[in-house]
Amino acid sequence: MDDPELAHLTKIGLSVTVSRGAGLCLAYDGAIILLPVCRNIIKYLRLTFLNNVIPFDENLWFHRQCAYSMLFWTLVHTFAHYINFIRVEELGLSPAWAVHYKHPAGVTGHFMLLIMVLMYTSAHRSVRQQSFETFWYTHHLAFFFMLALYTHATGCFVATNTVPKRCKGYFSWEWTIWGGIIYFFERVLREIRSRQTTQITKVIYHPSKAIEIQFQKPSFKYKAGQYLFLNVPEISSFQWHPFTITSAPDDSFVSVHVRQVGDFTNKLGELLGCYNEKGAIPKDLPLLRIDGAFGTPAEDVFKNEIAVLIGCGIGVTPFASILKNIWYQQQNKGHQSKLRRVEFFWICRDTGSFEWFQSLLKSLEDKQIEEGFLKFHIYLTSKLRESTIQNIIINDVSGSYDPLTDLESRTHYGRPNFSYIFSQLKKAIETGRYLPGKERDLETNVGVYYCGPAALAKNLKVDTKKSNSNGIKFHFHKEHF
Ligand SMILES: Cc1cc2nc3c(=O)[nH]c(=O)nc-3n(C[C@H](O)[C@H](O)[C@H](O)COP(=O)(O)OP(=O)(O)OC[C@H]3O[C@@H](n4cnc5c(N)ncnc54)[C@H](O)[C@@H]3O)c2cc1C
């Protein structure tokens, strides 16, 4: 601000320096805020060595941090500008209202403030949980926000005192616009990709309001543990809902398990015939549009020696695909990975949920090639009714199979104590009982993958951290719906 060509602005006071500095910070935020939501680019970047340095799976967290930073600098920028406008009037340079409402910078600035109020309030967790659509549609105002941001400096707001005068702003739009261009192409790619032919091949109604949709889309490529976005134009052309892929890449179809919890999923159930009296699948199935697949931490399971997979309720879906993939790998021995042991925990509130993947778990248990490679730990957390307890006792006569799941592994009642489970696992590894043949001085990586409510994720993070030692490294990865 010691530029003699801008001396007429400097004389307004320190507020000019503050508004310009905050404006530059906002330009940086504006340039990067869209990058973490470029899911296609992130999908590829997380496969590179960069993933060891940049936590790409925390992309939405980073997007939020950019937004918080933007809010902070907006408050500073606006406050400083309001002081500037008062000073401009005091110095007799221009009436304040004219800078506010006649200059393009003032008009676009106020427009952006209005959009920010709408976007920030509707992005609050409580709104997202209660009415995701309100958040989703309001968030698309970002398009107009970005247009205003790129054009905020038109009209030569910062001009020199020379004759003729020259614009001497930061010209930040020249680089902030690239974030928008990249994001725009992401959305175009989504549109093109989602229009490729998709054919529903099978619909299975499971208990506890879960539907399994199997479909074919020849152009669709994915890895176990990834998720896709589903759109059903008959319900809404604009709503895209994420669902984890439950089939394995070697399957001849792609499948998702959808739990009916709200407007979209219930309407989908209706279109797929869930509420038909005879339970028959309708002849005219709705058109599906699929976008993806996108990466999640779960796709890295095969990079560990030991994987602890923990799914709560429908949070089991990422692991269904992984378990199937493990099975295919075992059949096809050419595809060996680092993975030597898998501990699979499934925590369910009600017994109906077990049926979603019962046949998959049963066939995995029966067809295990390597003894002890895959262990199931099923937990039922709801209180049982007396009639259910009686049924369990009656059906448990043979004792070889669990009466609830029909698996050899027994169902546990209540919540698992992960702190104890991890300490026991660590002890078993240390004493060489768990991975026989493994050299003791080599480091063992235990990947803990969790999909379920955020409250348990917090405890698991603490438990895994506590279990770390020099030779045994527990890595915690979470996902929640
Ligand atoms: C990565 C990921 C994978 C998922 N995988 C599965 C799965 O395999 N099976 C399954 O049943 N569910 C899954 N979900 C949850 C599923 O997306 C929501 O249940 C579904 O979108 C609910 O829509 P609705 O209109 O029926 O319900 P609503 O009543 O509108 O919403 C119910 C809950 O879902 C959230 N939600 C709604 N729409 C979206 C959206 N477009 N994007 C993100 N969250 C949304 C809301 O915040 C709310 O908490 C997954 C979510 C994520 C983020």
Automatic annotation (TrEMBL):
User: What highest taxon heads this organism's lineage?
Assistant: Eukaryota
Q: Name one Pfam family in it.
A: NAD_binding_6
What residue stretches are annotated with the FAD-binding FR-type domain? 193-300
Checking CDD domains in the record gives: NOX_Duox_like_FAD_NADP
A biological process term (GO) from this entry? superoxide anion generation
Per UniProt, the keywords (alphabetical) are: Electron transport, Ion transport, Membrane, Oxidoreductase, Transmembrane, Transmembrane helix, Transport
How this chain sits in the membrane, per its record, is: Multi-pass membrane protein
Q: What is its main location?
A: membrane
Matching InterPro entries: FAD-bd_8, FAD-bd_FR_type, Fe3_Rdtase_TM_dom, Fe_red_NAD-bd_6, FNR_nucleotide-bd, RBOH/FRE, Riboflavin_synthase-like_b-brl
* Cellular-component GO terms for this entry: NADPH oxidase complex
Q: What are the TM regions of this chain, as residue ranges?
A: 12-37, 66-85, 105-123, 135-160
Q: Where in the cell is it found?
A: Membrane
**Which one of the record's GO molecular function terms can you name?**
superoxide-generating NAD(P)H oxidase activity
Q: What is this protein called?
A: 1100_t:CDS:1
Query: Which organism is the protein's source?
Result: Funneliformis geosporum
